[in-house]
């Protein structure tokens, strides 16, 4: 947050705490919608509703559209029914669907019934696609032009739909059956002669089917650096467009979810400061309980090798080193492969190639760390203990990297989020197996 934004937030909070709506309106007056959005995301639910009601109608709609769907749902609970109906009607169909997913069924049904027939039909079309598909994130409000249409007529059509189309910078080109045959940019239309056919200036189209997972389609749009990606049905008939801003929002949400689950928590899906403490607790407690149960494996391993520890107490000093190094190595591999999966650099069928590569990487890392451990520990506790540590780090790093690299691919094959199988679970698994390796090596080397 910049110094100016911090000053603005302080002024808003002072006006709210003093109960002075006049002062609050004076603070909000010169702010842009982006500035208001930044402030709103850092306030509690009650203060959000107070601040929002002081905004002008145009600014209010822009701010509302910029909020995440869960935060939109929170805000609606503090507004009057007529305000809610007006805001809902002003959203694009895809944004309405995202909001409806956050609302109780009774409220969602009432809002849908309040729409005009054409807007209700557009919203119902998007609602008809499966959860998680790009059909629910596309915009049905687009300008399509026919392949045989003249450039002049195409530009006239664009001009007629400037107020109701999601974007006009990329135009899908269709045939008489509304099947996608290409795309044409507004720049190319303006450059072409007025009597040329659109088909003569269009280019080949990249497209996705409406049932494609949203993250996959968004990645396609971002990787190809497209302003808009046509969305079709199974017969390649045009049904909507995925715009670049919606694609980036999908990717941001997916990456936030992966990062949260890799850290052992559920994504908050709303700004941190506007999230109730109880919600944060719920997002963390289940994972902590699951990991606590998993950590009991480590206790069982220590109990099984209690005799070994009694015979060589010095071995207990290096337990944190062994499990920490193994967990970190596994986490590095899992994070790398999870990210590679998201970017489509690797696929589940590459599991053997990934296993071989990560085993080599783990072996190299283990050799380097093991050599350091051998030298340092040998100087302090003797050659035999140093050899135990060196060999253990060599084996544990190789095992951890291999498991960490393979588990996200296995998760994808099982249609489970790879991040779920990432850092927390791999750490727990490697802790237990690392200790087993450690004590078995100690028994073999020390003759215990």
From TrEMBL:
Name under which the protein is recorded:
Magnesium transporter MgtE
The record's annotation in Pfam families points to: CBS, MgtE, MgtE_N
- General function of this protein: Acts as a magnesium transporter.
Report the gene name. mgtE
**Keyword Transmembrane included in the entry's annotation:** yes
Instruction: List cellular component terms (GO).
Output: plasma membrane
What does the UniProt entry say about where the protein is found? Answer: Cell membrane; Membrane
The subunit structure is: Homodimer.
Domain CBS stretches: 138-201
Keyword annotations for this protein, in alphabetical order, are: CBS domain, Cell membrane, Magnesium, Membrane, Metal-binding, Transmembrane, Transmembrane helix, Transport
Q: Which domain of life is it from?
A: Bacteria
Q: Which SUPFAM superfamilies match?
A: CBS-domain pair, MgtE membrane domain-like, MgtE N-terminal domain-like
Its main subcellular localisation, reduced to a broad class, is membrane
What are this entry's molecular-function GO terms? magnesium ion transmembrane transporter activity; metal ion binding
Q: How does it sit in the membrane?
A: Multi-pass membrane protein
Family note? Belongs to the SLC41A transporter family.
Q: Which NCBIfam families match?
A: mgtE
Q: Which SMART domains match?
A: CBS (SM00116), MgtE_N (SM00924)
> TM segments?
361-381, 387-411, 423-446
